[in-house]
Amino acid sequence: MAALLGFFLLLLQFGPSACSNVYIVYMGERSPELDPALVQDSHHGMLAAVLGSEPAAKDAILYSYRHGFSGFAAVLTGSQAARLADWPGVVRVVRNRVLDLHTTRSWDFMRVSPSPSVGILSESRFGEDSIIGVLDTGIWPESASFRDDGIGEVPRRWKGKCIVGDRFNASNCNRKIIGAKWYVKGYEAEYGKMNTTDIYEFMSARDAVGHGTHTASTAAGALVAGANFRGLASGVARGGAPRARLAVYKVCWATGDCTSADILAAFDDAIHDGVDVLSVSLGQAPPLPAYVDDVLSIGSFHAVAKGIVVVCSAGNSGPYSETVINSAPWILTVAAGTLDRTFLAKITLGNNSTFVGQTLYSGKHPAKSMRIVYAEDIASNNADDTDARSCTAGSLNSTLVKGNVVLCFQTRAQRAASVAVETVKKSRGVGVIFAQFLTKDIASSFDIPCVQVDYQVGTAILAYTTSTRNPTVQFSSAKTILGELIGPEVAYFSSRGPSSLSPAVLKPDIAAPGVNILAAWTPAAAISSAIGSVNFKIDSGTSMSCPHISGVVALLKSMHPNWSPAAVKSALVTTANVHDNYGFEIVSEAAPYNQANPFDYGGGHVNPNRAAHPGLVYDMGTSDYVSFLCSMGYNSSAVSSMTQQHASCQHTPKAQLNLNLPSVTILELRGKLTVSRTVTNVGSAMSKYRARVEPPPGVDVTVNPSILIFNSTVKRLSFKVTFQAKLKVQGRYTFGSLTWEDGTHTVRIPLVVRTMISNFYVNA
């Protein structure tokens, strides 16, 4: 649903413009001995040799990547690209891809509060001096969320700049927004010069869309009293790390397009500039490319190698399995969860029956009752009943819709309330009741009311409309309902694991709030003809959950600046909640609802305060990721060039089992199997941990040793986990956990096992 509602998860896909003549020539890690200027000169020299002259090379090159890694983007013919692919030192030549553009309560819900004197916010000084880089659609700098009141001077280590442009000058940066850059060369190489006459856009880091402003304020917005979306969700809006700094990298444009050449340039700059965290709602929908061919995997690998935590959204293709994206082990991949808040309106029928539904409509309602009609009864002549029932575009008779409220039912082919709203609105209807499966994700409807109900309520309303000569309905104004709902739950739209590329690496890693999130918005463009512009807006998607984790990471980096990206990920995963606010096991929105598992939320729903003091962490470094790349079957030269480490790769897929992840995933358990892990003590020097196992059903699990004792000299200890299949259940995933406890800390990792009894298997 979220994808259809325009929730801006950025999905890489080949479109009509896939015949692009823009190529990215990737040359791997830049040698630290080489000056960036010399690296750039070498790129021009290579290109000149292929194109025949220096002027031709100067005209063709778009970007020279020379900080975090080496390479360039250029306009080339296919034969020129092929010649460069054989050039010494070139790892890959990949075609530029075009990408499409896919809060008051959330931080209190996660108990990240500015009022107590203890907790992650106060201990981290509200994230002060952490720098969050946001790759998105830019920023609206005048928003109150980006004030710099009470924030100290810009950290001296910062090397970034504010690049001026259309309605964006140096004064738009402050001690909150400390960097702003924009990237359009890859876009214009695909489509020609940006026409800002036809498209409302700014040739600068200024945000014309709103999405980048929303994500940036979610991660690091200042406290803003009285924030609301047309009266809904009123309260104090704030980001997770209110005193963290923001570096803006605008890589996506109002047309909904972004290109991989521009994105890789932003990664290169962010590494040079000195960000601590990168918040990136970008990715490629399955089928996923090899990690050595994927620009996002490449850029994030080099960022992580420099100590930068890269946080990415998991995708909005749920609830289907194997749809999770951004699945490299060095990326922190975020699923979306719900809050304990919703927005309800009362439905009163002409017979005085009343029902309650969810809505974000906050406009005026007619004082009188309105006539209600069933969509299937007013189908257009050329529409089938199923299309009409769900109010698919063009399926209704406009004459019979005009002036009426239309009752629509979700179908397998048409799941989105937003589509029904557009269909009814174009036919001059005055409202929609949309019956669907249960979900807390509410469609945006600004011009006419749309109230979402479940099938049971929808069926009751249908019975009334079919039994009454002149059925009518009346809606009440929407109200914010807070603290009365069970949460979190895994959002229906959130993409699920396992990864289709590397299923032995558990993805997603973590879940965070991503449904009905209020955050800052750009007032530049009206959200509807009836409402005009707003300063805050409610939105949903894993694009919204991603900056929640980015904000938490900024807090953790303020407290633990020397932690590696893997240590930060481990702290989040091993302390996450697997129970909701009422103590029940978290459930997953699906049809039907079911108990959530690690393929839905990884380690669980984020618990920022516990993550600040995890006790133990499962740490990794670049050499571990090199071993992983080798285990994926990539050749030694490609891996060596990408990492600037000598790699003598042997294709050993089982090596992934011993990758020091904060999880264990066994794809094929036949009999007995042993894996190893190593933990690092980041708590009290003198500590003693005991293992507690909840084995996956049908599997025996033993841990050796089952007690870990740390002291001032012993800070890292290894252990082995042995799995023994008990039941001959073929092909089914089962789930358990391994927890280390010392009386103060609870360090939990998920165990995922699929038992096999032959060489043939099927998905459970």
Radius of gyration over C-alpha positions, nearest whole angstrom: 26 Å
Oligomeric nature of the chains: single chain
The largest pleated sheet is described as: 8 strands, mixed
Proportion of residues in extended strands = 25-35%
SS element count, helices: 19
Any low-confidence stretches, pLDDT <50, length ≥5?
1-20, 759-764
Binned, the helix content reads: 10-25%
Shape: globular
Could you walk me through the main structural features you see in this protein, from its secondary elements to its overall organization?
Helix content is 22%, strand content 26%. The protein has 764 residues and is of the alpha/beta class. Strands 17, 18, 19, 20, 21, 22, 23 and 24 form an 8-stranded mixed beta sheet that branches. Strands 8-11-7-13-15-16-25 form a 7-stranded parallel beta sheet, with helices on both faces. It has a 5-stranded mixed beta sheet with strand order 31-38-37-33-35, with no helix packed on it. The longest helix is centred in the C-terminal third of the chain and has 18 residues, at 542-559. It is globular and about 80 Å long. GO terms for molecular function: serine-type endopeptidase activity. Residues 658-753 form the Subtilisin-like protease fibronectin type-III domain.
